[in-house]
Amino acid sequence: MTSEKYGYFPCHFSLITFHLSLMEVVYEDNHIVIVAKQSGEIVQGDKTGDEPLSEKVKAYLKEKYQKPGAVFLGVVHRLDRPVGGLVMFARTSKALARLNKMFANGEVHKTYWAIVESDKSEVKSGKPSIHTSHLSLFTSHLECHLLEHWLTRNERQNKSYAHDHEVAGSKLARLRCRLLAQGDHYALVEVQLMTGRHHQIRCQLSAIGCPIKGDLKYGARRSNADGSISLLARRIAFIHPVSGADISIETPLPADPLWQALAAKAVHQTSPQTPA
């Protein structure tokens, strides 16, 4: 079967100028559109009144396909405002219903990259700024580590708190994390979510003494100049809800020098070594 039978037209890393804003459409077909959200954007409307990404995508689709009426677009997941990376939307009600079920069943696999505070000298000396039970996370490459906490949410503060045991009102949070590269003051880690809790990655990494760079709410030393936090929804993989095709999409890294330097080190460290 050809991909055209299903209206399966990849649109990889297409930069589309629309209404004076730059929106990066990473993948698009008749049922799904995936865009690279910029930090600072909101996915859905909120009390700020700022234009959400969902409305920008609707406007893009309306203009591109010259649709005379309202454009259908379903929000199937979200990213926190200071987080950048891949966001998927449903273009049809059929896709929306199926994607909602897939997300609920854990059939959509999301991978994040994060730059976390992790001083190389402290890792080597075992100083208590990093929780001792997780020191190995920052001393061995490629090995995945399971993090489990019970999270409670404070609605007034819009913040989650991690506990090492179940408490009243808590929900179990699980993720897998591995070290990609270690710099002098920061480390690059890869995270795979196994549950979807409020601020889960931010809260759990902070709980082991490694807050995400720029994330003041969860203990970072200082903010990033642009107000972002150094967390990126890097990759999304799933079975297409209509065509059944295997889809795996990855977004480019930010141009920020620290991102680029750590990523380059990660490639070097994970590349096969040529025998001497």
Notes on the protein architecture:
It is a single chain. The protein has helices at 53-64, 93-104, 120-125, 200-207, 257-270; strands at residues 14-18, 21-28, 32-37, 74-75, 84-90, 109-117, 145-154, 159-163, 171-182, 186-193, 231-239, 246-250. It has 276 residues and is α+β, with helices and mostly antiparallel strands. Strands 1, 2, 3, 4, 5, 6, 7, 8, 9, 10, 11 and 12 form a twelve-stranded mixed sheet that branches. β4 (74-75) and β5 form a beta hairpin. The chain is globular, with a radius of gyration of 20 Å. Mean pLDDT is 85; it is low at 1-10, 12-20, 123-133 and 271-276.
Instruction: Tell me the total number of β-strands.
Output: 12
Number of helices: 5
Question: How many angstroms does the end-to-end distance come to?
Answer: 47 Å
Look at the structure and give the mean pLDDT: 85
User: In this structure, how is the largest beta sheet organized?
Assistant: 12 strands, mixed
Spans of at least 5 consecutive residues with low confidence: 1-10, 12-20, 123-133, 271-276
- Give the overall shape: globular
- Strand-pairing-aware structural class: alpha+beta
Q: Work out the strand percent.
A: 25-35%
Q: What's the helix-strand series?
A: EEEHEEHEHEEEEHEEH
